[in-house]
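Weekly structure sync, notes
Attendees: PL (lead), two postdocs, one rotation student
Agenda item 3: pending single-chain targets
PL asked that the sequence for the first pending target be pasted directly into the notes so everyone works from the same version. It is reproduced below exactly as submitted, 203 residues in total.
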Amino acid sequence: MLERLLPGYNCGECGYKSCRDFAEHLSSIEDLSRCPYMSQDRFRDHCEEIRRIIEKGVSRERIVGVMDGLEAEFSLGPLDGERSCVEDIHPLEDCSLKAGDLIRYRPLGCPITHFARVIEFDHGVARVHIVGPLFGERGKYRELGICMVLAFEGKVVRGRIPEVGRTVRFLPEHCMMQKVHSGVVVHSEGLRVRIEAIDLKVW
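Predicted structure, written out during the meeting:
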């Protein structure tokens, strides 16, 4: 419904690949300022129609965690060409890892065992992509035990793009429990977001 009211140029200036993607993420009239064309006089009536639709709540998509029933502000997916969000993790036991290592660990506060591929390891922090669950792979991965998840980095795929400095509720798309997480946004550029101070206890 909102897509037909946008310019349809698919220029990407708003941070989305197409006007259709932009329409799916519109949640306030202020969001229209991301489009360089909607401020032109020829789209004034379209802006008014979009405002009426948004006020009725037609464009509001609820993002709800399956595990906890909590509502998230946005869902976080992988950056283009990647298989999952990037996670920064800190093993609680001393270890040495290298890029390409396959690891198994359990995030502190999460009952699910994760399998991941190490992107890089520096000063005790591993940047990883989730690659599991894996079956029949025993002996092919490093067992790390419990790890602290320090950060998530990815692309906002549904919901509003958050502002830097805000504490937010978000849903990592690769989360096997589909549980809402919380954290503080430390970087936001286009659709790319980095969230630190990760907490699974969302109130």
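Discussion points:
- The chain has a mean pLDDT of 89.
- The CA atoms of residues 91 and 197 lie 16 Å apart.
Action: rotation student to compare against the earlier draft before next sync.
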